[in-house]
Amino acid sequence: MAKYLLKRLAQILVTLFVFLTLVFFIVNAQPGDVSNFYALNPDVPPETRERLQDLFGVNEPLWKQYLVHIKNTFTGNFGISFSHYPRSVADVIMERLPRTVVLFMTATALSFYLGFALGKILAWRRGGWFEYTSTVGGVTLYTVFTPWFGLMMIWLFAFKAGWLPIGKFLDPVLWRDASIDANSVFNQMILTAFVVSVVVFAVFVITGQRRMGNARIIRIASIALASLAVAGVWISSGTVVFAWDILRHMVLPVVTLTLISFAGTMLLTRNSMLETMREDFVMAARAKGLPERAVRDKHVARNALLPVVTSFIFSLAFAVDGGVITESIFSWPGMGQTLVSATLTEDLPLAVGAFVFVGIFVLVAHLVADVLYAYLDPRIRY
Amino acid sequence: MTTDPVLVVEDLKMHYVTRAGTVRAVDGVSFAVARGQSLGLVGESGCGKSSIAMTLLKLLPDNARLVSGSIILNGVDLTTLSEDQMRAHRWDRISMVFQAAMNSLDPVYRVGDQIIEALEAHSASAGRDAMERVRELFDLVSLDPTYIRRYPHEYSGGMRQRAIIAMALACEPDIIIADEPTTALDVIVQDHILREMQAIQRSLNMSMIYISHDMAVIAEVCDVVGVMYAGKLVEFGPTTEVYARPIHPYTKALMSAFPSVRGEKHDLTTLPGEPPDLLDLPAGCAFHPRCAYATDECRTSIPPTVQRGDHWATCWNPVDDLGGE
Fold first, then answer.
1. Residue A197 gets which letter from DSSP?
2. What is the ipTM, given to two decimal places?
3. Torsion angle, CA of A277/B232/B75/B64, rounded to 10 degrees?
4. Does domain A96-180+251-376 correspond to CATH entry 1.10.8.60?
5. Residues 6+ apart with CB under 8 A from A248
6. How do strand B21-34 and strand B76-77 relate by DSSP bridges?
7. pLDDT for A253-281, tens place per residue?
8. Chain B contact probe: residue of A124, A211, A212, A288 with most B CBs at under 10 A
9. Is residue B26 included in any domain, yes or no?
10. Residue B51 domain boundaries
11. Over 70: is that where the pLDDT of B266 sits?
């Protein structure tokens, strides 16, 4: 396993290098550079424009820029953003990336959970109204024009019903006098979610390995306890209003993204289940006198999980670049919006930096997928 | 031997309803298996052998219909049980060694855990007791106990078959159905496993139903044998009787298609034609289109039962009467 991981890491470095090269040349292939903005402005004298070009290094030959770019990226220096001057690219991305990752990861996880649960039932009970409604409903949502659906959701739940905020990441009126900034609250929220999921996962793994009769009770108790602890810590810290505000802003985009994408997982799970159901070990499980539920969940669904996990990992990769469309509709200040504005303002360092982060995330996600496979399917050993 | 029957099957009919029509996969089969006895069911592919196995366990696809008959296991008629009651009987009272042992183990769980799963479904024995039982079972089928915690893909074909047998024995059932238990194995491993199964069956005084197309396998391990053709039993009797003096031309044809090690040398003959289409059975005796002895009676009316002691067959022209013709 260690040898395999090393080999894969080396492969990742090579892939990353190729990726960096491609990104650099593709981004530079678009006409003009950052100084074009100032060129059209009559208040900017030509000398200033030249000085800017020198400062940003855009007058250097391309191969020189490329070498600098590669060297800087591998030494962790992504440069300074043109449009957010004087903030560094890394700084801008570090602010935007968590927002996108949290939003899209939550939506992806929810949509896979929903899709997997529905797909299981669909495969088990073929025919009938349930299969009909969920397939038609799911596929309709899957194929619907995303901007229209997003706007409809906003119109219905935010504008007409007024239950949820219309867009953006937070409510500026509430935060005006806040003594704490949004990013640190958000980072605390991520940390909390991470700690809780690690604890719950550990409890599930431990109770699953020892054959404990009361595993279910322990699991429920641990989840309840974790929720209580989280609620206690947040309420006592006094920042709970702000966290709640961010959460409220997340609901609508998360629900929208989940609704438009769960059908893919649902149909994938259904097909994978139907294929697995033909296997002999499923008949053997039935012959052993196991309850239908155990046959479905322990044997069929467990074996049908692999292709679904593959698709999940690939979807996670897309969670980083963020749906440009979704982020625009919900005015969510994440990576999608950053990429668009960086490209439009010829902010090359930021655009390239954003792409590089997406690329690294995708490569790491694939590595995680490979490791996860070995865990899920004992036949796979590296 | 015929006293104390463990399993009595009476006029069992199981049909598949398909778009093309009704497939009479099991069409009026009756037999009994005594405690400690082993019954063999032989016949070509597609004559309803495996369908009988699935019917006995009531593990039937949605389009299967149990048309008539009773399956009395230890005095309980399985055909009248609800799905929940039937689930309690499966494996606990009647278990199975599957045709495709290679694929009958779930690839993502350790073999020991899969046996424990069966134990836990039927008794309170969990945890350490169940583990102890798995050790006993591995010992019984001569498997290395270190393999309890291994995955199916780490087993060889013969080991997997042993594991499947251990699993079938787990709840000490009254009867085990072995559907082509050794077909996928090489001859030497096949022989080992058959002998072991026989030894275990005798020591535990269990009943068995072997299902096979291989006359040699049945001859080696079965006390009584039933020959199936087109969903029906066409000949039934003690194995030695049936092999020495077959009554039905089909049995005779099947036997002359297999070489015998101990008997006289003879040229192997193949049986021309294929088993009939179960959707559209020939009138009279279903075997008549392929039968060398067929007469007009065979083509029009259902053949009578020819009884020779506890050995019988359904035929108009029993071959044991016709002698060497």
1. H
2. 0.85
3. 30
4. no
5. A164, A165
6. unpaired
7. 999 999 988 998 999 999 999 999 988 89
8. A288
9. yes
10. 5-93+173-322
11. no
